[in-house]
Specification:
The complex is a heterotrimer of chains A (342), B (345) and C (323). Chain A is of the alpha/beta class and 342 residues long. Chain A has a domain at 260-334. Chain A has helices spanning 52-59, 86-92, 104-107, 114-125, 130-143, 149-153, 162-174, 192-209, 220-226, 244-249, 254-261, 324-341; strands at 10-21, 24-36, 41-45, 68-76, 79-80, 97-100, 180-184, 212-217, 229-234, 237-243, 317-318. In chain A, strands 6-7-8-3-9-10-11 form a 7-stranded mixed β-sheet, sandwiched between helices. In chain A, strand 9 (229-234) and strand 10 (237-243) form a beta hairpin. Mean pLDDT of chain A is 84; it is low at 338-342. Chain B has 345 residues and is mainly alpha-helical. Chain B contains 13 helices and 6 strands. In chain B, the strands form 3 sheets. Chain B has a two-stranded antiparallel ribbon with strand order 1-2. In chain B, a hairpin with a 2-residue loop joins strand 1 and strand 2 (81-84). In chain B, helix 6 runs antiparallel to helix 9 (215-231) and helix 11 (245-281) runs antiparallel to helix 13. The longest helix of chain B has 37 residues, at 119-155. By secondary structure, chain C is mainly alpha-helical. Chain C contains 13 helices and no strands. Chain C has helices at 2-28, 35-40, 46-55, 62-76, 89-124, 129-143, 146-160, 182-215, 219-226, 231-262, 264-270, 275-284, 288-316. The longest helix of chain C is centred in the N-terminal third of the chain and has 36 residues, at 89-124. The chains are: A alpha/beta (342), B mainly alpha (345), C mainly alpha (323). Chains in contact: A-C, B-C. Chains A and C meet through helix 2 and helix 4 of A and helix 9 and helix 10 of C.
């Protein structure tokens, strides 16, 4: 899977992010490591507050440098990017790694046209004439499926619908042909039908442009549809990692079981009530020692007070004390239940 | 902007759950307590207020002269020599007199004014008036602003239209001109309403005038807030529960508006002190023989190039007081209204 | 668009009528006042007072009095100052206008540039020593009474340091018309401009900084940074551009109010015979017709400035264009 000679597209190692708050330093991200190769589609899944967005923003240097402390390493094509001077990082940001923000309503500057904002990005990274940049922007708008792209070029963000805006944002992200697209919950703010269209668009773009995509989401259904590999995050740590196939076939962490059980079944009778995970996730300021999920976990036992063994370097693994047998049994109990009830 | 209150600030909490350990008000007070700049400013203010308000108790005895009576022929001892307070001019034709400059002793610490009065002592008495007027005018302003803003916002309809239009007109009126128009009429002849007569030299006139002219500054945001509150979920819920309107007004709306008013207090105080000094400088504020910081600056105008201290000292007093009020105001706003819904100047 | 325009015009007229009514009521309907005696002047004979009473219709109902007064002010334009007998009020107001405009316009240029610089630099260096120093200076500027600061500037530039290289170029107080002596015009106005602008540089710098800091919390700033734009570009083309809207509102209001007479303190201190000083002198002589004229004139400018701001909005904020 990994080519030893060619460095990974993005290699993150022992990432730790902490914030300065009124009550001292608070660690939001702890010991997060992952790598992404060219053309891969990786999903990072977790509830809000689990640190999925923060980890990627900190890699891109988009967090507030005065209040956020980032430790560990991150290398883009073998070149370390954490702590890179802003001037150098800017050449990567937007050109090699593009970011698709969550809410397209607030993500575009309200006082400039869509076209102006795309042209701005193109001309920041490439020396092209205004006309050429405009031509390319219109092509991009066409490619992401905006009807009448030439007119959309001159529109202000508030004049477009949510789905249209999200497409415009994606067009802007694509404008410099990035090797990696980071999409932060690109579908959350959209209607269900538009969500599907945007996901299809992302899949098609990967095929056409060959960009790797990191999709940040809390929706396991979305993950099943598009991702090659999956990382599940909880309370600032990666708690399970594997290919989408592996994780959907045999999830190993009790938290992942909970996430999967909460997807409504596609076939069969509608369950009366979807199972949910009891309790709420901890905030970064009060993450419990040991396994952070233990307080909400039905399978917790004595060792959970300590920190589970680190994830293996590759392959499918979970950040959990349960052994393989216990995992299989727990999984079987949870997923058999609705069927027997039916 | 429509979402004026965050869930944690909703006063449904403040009004009903008094048993909670930390009400939003308490939390804000604690936050303010730990704001170092605001607390230093508050201490400076307390010191200034005490020094000025107690002036009648001690100032006369320290300065040794009556700060309201001219003493053109007095002499004081400096370095064992008797020096006249009003020295005959040695320049030019030798006409006129020059008041004594700052001695930096107990007597005539900051020199004398054109009538040989002790500037330092007058500064204290003047500060007393300036602070009293600014404080009372703030209360007048907040009272009327709340009355108009809440009535207009809560009852809506024709009441709102009339009151808002009135505020629009008042808002478009440059404050100094409004103050001048009111002052010229009132200060010249006093005000008689029925059996009540306010003398033309009364401090009540500047208080009333300064209080009234800034009403729209406060009433408009209050009205906006009341309207936002009326549309907020917890008020809608109360209406849905069939709670009477007056209860909603007193238990849901007013506690929230109070926060806004608290934020306005130091800022209006600051504004009022400056306004008072400006009106007094134009001789339509505090009337002689009373003094205020503004009148002292005005009286010192003629001495500006010879004895600048007469005009400069009260100005410095104003700057320090207003600066402290503004710093405190910033702190109060950060503590009570962290998302800065209001940005009064 | 047309209906919005008509609506706006109607509002303008309403506010102006409202102000004139209010001024009228303050001057002529305050309990216990005798406007006829006031207009006739001090030491006027009984006959003269009676004559004024009939001329101005003070023996008739208030609404009629109001209409008569407005007619004198706007239609006949023969309202006379009672201090300098026989002198028409309106031409005096018109004569003073260019002086006030010169003062306010120059100060406005200074304070817009200064306010932008202070706000942008402070926001860009948020939390640093530069930021804190600028904010303390701005707060001091806000806290100084403008007339007192003007006097201190006079003290420094006309007396204390007048003989040094720093202020030896400062001419004596007064005004020189731009058309006759442009360089003199500039020199006499530099100190007044600065004195008046300091307060507004403080206000605008503080407000702009707060708006910029708020803007930096917005998603679109993160998008702009994610695009790889330089910090300067993010600041100027995205954050500042969106923060300009409240800036323009404030500017319109302040400019209007200042031209409308609130610059009077500065004019008095620097001996500039603008509208404000005209009001001030009238004030000292209790020259009622003059004050009435200047106040009404002032309201006109304030309302006009508000309307201009509304139209500028349309250019700055595309969201306003459809509304």
């Amino acid at each position: 899977m990994t080519d030893p000679i060619r460095p990974a597209l993005l290699d993150v190692d022992h990432l730790k992010v902490s914030f300065a708050t009124d009550r001292g330093r608070v660690t939001a991200i702890n010991d997060v490591s992952f790598r992404i190769d060219d053309g891969e589609f990786v999903a990072i899944v977790g509830e809000s507050g689990s640190g999925k967005t923060v980890s990627l923003l900190s890699i891109l240097g988009l967090t507030d440098r005065r209040t956020t402390f980032v430790e560990g390493t991150a290398a883009f094509r073998g070149r370390p990017i954490l702590g890179l001077p802003d001037r150098e990082l800017r050449r990567i940001r937007g050109k090699q790694i593009a970011f698709i923000p969550q809410d397209p309503l607030t993500a575009l500057t309200p006082v400039h046209t869509i076209g102006w904002q795309i042209v701005e990005q193109i001309r920041t990274h490439e020396t092209v004439s205004k006309e050429a940049a405009k031509k390319r922007a219109i092509e991009l708008l066409d490619e992401v499926g905006l009807p009448n792209p030439a007119a959309a070029f001159g529109r202000y963000p508030h004049q477009l619908s949510g789905g249209m805006r999200q497409r415009a944002v994606i067009a802007m992200a694509l404008s410099c042909n990035p090797a990696l697209l980071v999409a932060d919950e690109p579908t959350t703010a959209l209607d269900v039908t538009v969500q599907a269209q945007v996901l299809d668009l992302l899949k098609r773009l990967r095929r056409d442009h060959g960009s790797a995509i990191i999709l940040i989401t809390h929706d396991m259904g979305v993950v099943a549809e598009v991702a090659d590999r999956v990382m599940v995050m909880y309370a600032g740590r990666v708690i399970e990692r594997g290919t989408a196939r592996e994780i959907f076939a045999a999830p190993e962490h009790p938290y992942t079981w909970g996430l999967m059980a909460s997807i409504p079944p596609v076939e069969g009778p509608r369950p009366h009530r979807l199972p949910s995970i009891p309790g709420t996730p901890p905030t970064p300021a009060n993450i419990p020692p040991g396994c952070a999920f233990a307080p909400r976990c039905a399978h917790r036992f004595a060792p959970c007070a300590g920190l589970p063994p680190a994830l293996s370097a590759s392959g499918h693994d979970a950040f959990c004390f349960l052994d393989d047998n216990a995992r299989a049994a727990g999984r079987a109990a949870l997923f058999a239940a609705p069927e027997t009830a039916a | 902007m429509t979402d004026a209150t965050s869930p944690s600030e909703t006063p449904a909490a403040a009004g009903t759950a008094t048993g909670r350990p930390q009400s939003p008000f308490r939390r804000a007070m604690v936050k303010l307590w730990y704001d170092r700049a605001a607390m230093i400013a508050a201490s400076v203010l307390v010191a200034i207020v005490i020094t000025c308000l107690l002036a009648p108790v001690y100032a006369k005895y320290v300065s040794g002269t009556d700060p309201f009576r001219s003493s053109l022929s007095a002499k004081i001892m400096i370095d064992g020599k008797r020096v006249p307070v009003m020295a005959p001019s040695t320049e030019g034709l030798g006409l006129g007199v020059t008041p004594i400059g700052p001695t930096f002793g107990a007597k005539y610490m900051l020199g004398a004014d054109t009538q040989g009065r002790d500037v330092a002592a007058r500064l204290l008495y003047g500060g007393r008036n300036s602070l009293l007027i600014a404080g009372a005018a703030t209360l007048v302003c907040l009272f009327f602003a709340t009355l108009i803003g809440v009535t207009s916002g809560f009852f809506g309809g024709a009441t709102d239209v009339v009151l808002s239009r009135f505020l629009d007109v008042l808002w478009a009126f440059p404050v100094y001109l409004l103050a001048i128009s009111l002052s010229i009429i009132l200060i010249a002849q006093g005000l008689t309403i029925g059996p009540f007569t306010i003398e033309s030299g009364s401090l009540l006139l500047p208080i009333g005038i300064i209080g009234v002219i800034y009403v729209p500054y406060v009433a408009r945001p209050v009205r906006g807030q009341v309207i936002a509150l009326k549309r907020s979920e917890f008020v809608l819920a109360s209406i849905g529960l069939g709670i009477p309107r007056w209860r909603i007004l007193f238990f849901d709306i007013l506690p929230n508006v109070t926060t806004t008013l608290i934020v306005f207090v130091p800022l209006m105080m600051a504004l009022n002190i400056v306004t008072e000094s400006a009106l007094s400088f134009l001789s339509i504020g505090v009337q002689p023989p009373d003094a205020s910081w503004g009148t002292i600056i005005q009286e010192g105008q003629g001495l500006l190039y010879n004895r600048p201290m007469v005009s400069v000292a009260p100005g410095i007093a104003i700057v320090i007081t207003v600066l402290a009020l503004n710093i405190l105001g910033d702190g109060v706003r950060d503590a009570f209204d962290p998302r800065s819904k209001l940005r009064p100047r | 668009m047309i209906t919005a325009l008509i609506r706006r015009l109607a509002e303008m007229v309403f506010v102006m009528v409202g102000i004139s009514v209010m001024v009228f009521l303050i001057f002529f309907a305050t309990p216990g006042s005798d406007p006829a005696a006031r207009i006739a002047g001090r030491n006027a004979t009984q006959e003269a007072v009676a004559q004024v009473r009939v001329d101005f219709g003070f023996d008739r109902p208030l609404p009629v009095q109001y209409v008569l007064m407005m007619k004198r002010l706007f239609v006949d334009r023969d309202l006379k100052s009672f201090v300098n007998r026989g002198q028409n009020v309106i031409p005096q107001v018109l004569e003073a206008t260019p002086i006030t405009l010169s003062l306010v316009f120059g100060a406005a240029v200074l304070w817009v540039i200064g306010g932008l610089a202070v706000g942008v630099i402070a926001a860009a260096t948020q939390g640093s020593l530069i930021d804190r120093t600028l904010m303390v200076l701005a707060l001091i500027g806000v806290s100084m009474p403008v007339f007192w600061f003007g006097e201190v500037m006079n003290l420094l530039s006309q007396a204390r340091f007048h003989d040094t290289w720093l202020f030896s170029w400062v001419p004596a107080l007064g005004y020189k018309p731009l058309s006759e002596d442009p360089w003199g015009w500039f020199k006499t106005l530099v100190i007044p401009w600065f004195s008046l602008a300091v307060l507004y540089i403080g206000i605008y710098g503080r407000v702009l900084r707060a708006n910029l800091v708020e803007a930096y919390q917005e998603d679109f700033i993160r998008t702009a940074r994610a695009k790889g734009l330089s910090p300067a570009r993010v600041m100027l083309r995205h954050a500042l551009r969106t923060s300009l809207i409240p800036f323009i509102t404030m500017f319109g209001l302040d400019f209007g109010v200042l031209v409308g007479g609130s610059a009077l303190l500065t004019e008095v201190v620097f001996g500039l015979n603008g509208i404000g000083r005209l009001t001030y002198i009238a004030l000292q002589n209790l020259d009622l017709p003059m004050i009435l004229a200047t106040v009404i004139y002032a309201s006109f400018f304030v309302v006009l400035a508000n309307a201009v701001v509304d139209f500028i909005y349309i250019f700055v904020d595309p969201r306003m264009r459809e509304a």
